[in-house]
Amino acid sequence: MRKVLFVCVHNAGRSQMAEAFFNQLAKGKAEGFSAGTQPSDKLNPVVVEAMHEVGIDISNRKPSPLTLEMLEGVDKIITMGCGVEGVCPASFVPTEDWQLDDPEGKSLEQVRQIRDKVKARIEELHKEL
Q1: Would you say the C-alpha torsion 114, 83, 122, 59 has a positive or negative sign?
Q2: What is the pLDDT of residue 11?
Q3: Domain count for the chain
Q4: What is the domain-level CATH number for residue 14?
Q5: Which residues 6+ apart lie within 8 Å of 97 measured at CB?
Q6: pLDDT, tens digit, for every residue of 21-55?
């Protein structure tokens, strides 16, 4: 089974959305999971609301710290714009960065735009895998 790890700084928005969209599309044929380099205590409530609008409930998810063990057996690592924020996961692991805006502090409308960009990128990734 192919594995994809989605990483952002807080694991409270972008990477959580990516994980949820990926697993929905993969339907058990691949596995997506997410982590943060400096995880928050909880998910961004605006992100939870924006995902709920498209029928995906992530309200029970919690941010997770990125660990070396998570990197084992991973086929691809996608970062969500870590370079922009100045904090990236270990650079010895090949990654692809999607340069997505952080939803923290953004309005619901802005988070919807980020959500839709995440979904479009996940659909492209799903075709690639």
Answers
A1: negative
A2: 96
A3: 1
A4: 3.40.50.2300
A5: 78, 79, 80, 81, 82, 83, 88
A6: 999 999 999 999 999 999 999 999 999 999 999 99
